Request: fold
Amino acid sequence: MSRELEHFYRVVEGVEKIFRLNNELARIIVQNIEKVMGKLVEKYGNDLKIKIMNFCGTHEWTVTHFGLRSLVPKNIELIAGPGCPVCVTPSHYIEEVLRLALDGVVVYTYGDTYRLRTVKPVKEVRSLSEARSLGALVKVVTSLAEAIEDSKKHGKDSIFIGIGFETVASGYAKAILSKAIPRNLKLLSLVKLTPPAMKYTLDIHRQELPVKGVIAPGHVSTIIGAKAWQKVSEEFKIPIVVSGFEPIDVMFSILEILKQLSEDRYRVVNEYKRAVTWSGDEVAQRMINEVFDVVDDAWRGIGFIPESGLRLKSRFRIFDAFEEFKIRELGKNEWVYDLSPGCRCADIILGKALPTNCPLFMKVCTPSTPVGPCMVSIEGTCSIWAKHGGMIAIEIAKDLGIDKG
Ligand code: SF4
Reply:
């Protein structure tokens, strides 16, 4: 590594205010990305393509909203991976909740799940928002705590749809262990785990152009720690950088990945030290292990990924919506492709296609008329591209003559 770059790393580590308004630092990072890429091209030739994948909807938001694709050399392909838990929740479970909602059970849900459309209608209804328009008691909340408070007031049979990654699981576990959940409220745990999904996705890309580096999810890593990615880095021999969510965080993570590639190294680096530790939140990890079993779980449009979901352990069945409301688990043999005809969400989630490759994107499927789940959630890649332009920043950069190609 050059002395200049060494100095740059020291500066980054020492600077507290490195974020959005620090144009000077942004400029240095971009220049260093170009410099390291120059070395890589010298080594591997002009046709070199470096695929870097992010695994968090918020990272995709940062990349797209701030036009970061226009700031990196054209040899770098920045793609989104499975970073949206709402997008991968099977239609089957939402259909089961719709049945309950229409039968009078109070449903608590996050806002994006409220608009999620099912593949099959239930009594002609295909989303919780439609169920509410028919009189069902569907309440949008921002947390389980809110659902607990509200359900205590009315005492009616209620269900909370627990969608999310590891980040939300510890909150659910704590509520259960502290017996904060009233008897009339049950948790439907549909929590998904990210490391198994990362392995599954990287494996798919091995058969084509392999992913050369990963920007690992910052929020999830606050719980599971940067160490959680070490096995993945070793198995796939790729750099993995746990990243924060400011544009400079992401650009720095890209630089770190390139730097490792140029030195023929691979390891996990924690760029997001202000929030993430190497070991993560061990108290949260213990609570999750105490309350949940790890199960093979279905991902919408994709199928079953081994050991990728969390369900309540049987000793906590009094809190379990599966038990209380006889919600049917999706068996491996009954899983069927559960996206609407023409929707390419599964390919987009796995980084095999871009939203603009979908024939329905911004024609039939828009943020106000979503067809697939990736257009519903704020973390869905199609929704992000629809609202913030996807590759438009590259077109603008070309027009302005500042294209990095
Ligand atoms: S644009 Fe709509 S239909 Fe196409 S993949 Fe995205 S969510 Fe699915």
Notes: The chain has 17 helices and eleven strands. The chain has a mean pLDDT of 92. The first helix runs from residue 3 to 14. Residues 102 and 136 are 6 Å apart (CA to CA).
